[in-house]
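Journal club prep — side note

Before the paper discussion, L.F. wants everyone to see what a predicted structure for a comparable chain looks like in token form. Sequence:
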Amino acid sequence: MKNQKQRVDFVDYWAKYVRTHSDKEWSRQQNVIINSCLSSTTITAEQFLKMKDPERK
């Protein structure tokens, strides 16, 4: 139960954060996270995008 409450609290926090910050700031922060994930792997950005969307050329 405690874990479920923590998850709900986090969702509430994040929803408020998204509503109170600009799209530009939100996008910049997500870009940092995604680039960090991609830099710690052996696949390229193009391979990652292809994996997410197999129809991508």
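L.F.'s comment for the group: The chain has a mean pLDDT of 84. Keep this in mind when we get to the figures.
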